[in-house]
Design brief:
Blueprint lengths: L12 H28 L5 H26 L11 H36 L3 H6 L1
Helix pairs in contact: 1-2, 2-3
Length: about 130
């Protein structure tokens, strides 16, 4: 049987990992439902779906990057980590930060595309 890390006041990494994977699974479920409804409902939005597909891919990458970050010390006090662990932690958190920005950008783009297609007013479309 595999040994799991205990959740303590000085080690909250497993909580971060658990929440990250729960949110990742929720995202996959929500996007799967959205894609299913897009194929069933008339008036498909291909550009919106493409942006959402990219965001989902980046989100999966973020979840994996955060898993590596937890393994390298996220959730632990900085004073308990060795120098090499801090360096590994920084190397694991940096890609997660970049992927988080990419996820946010793609989701915002998807919402803007949706609003652009939704509004009948030309002025609103130009502003979007």
């Amino acid at each position: 049987m595999d040994k799991r890390e205990a959740i303590t006041a000085s080690n909250l990494g497993p909580v971060v990992s658990l929440l990250t994977w729960i949110m990742g699974a929720s995202i996959l479920l929500a996007v799967g439902i959205k894609f299913t409804l897009s194929t069933v409902m008339p008036g498909k939005r291909y550009m919106e779906d493409a942006a959402l597909f990219l965001a989902t891919g980046f989100s999966i990458g973020f979840t994996i990057a955060m898993s590596f970050a937890v393994a390298n010390g996220v959730g632990r006090h900085q004073s308990t980590l060795a120098t090499h662990q801090l360096e590994s932690l920084q190397k694991a958190v940096y890609p997660a930060d970049v992927l988080l920005v990419l996820v946010s950008t793609c989701v915002q783009g998807s919402v803007l595309i949706f609003f652009h297609e939704l509004t009948p007013d030309r002025l609103h479309q130009r502003l979007i």
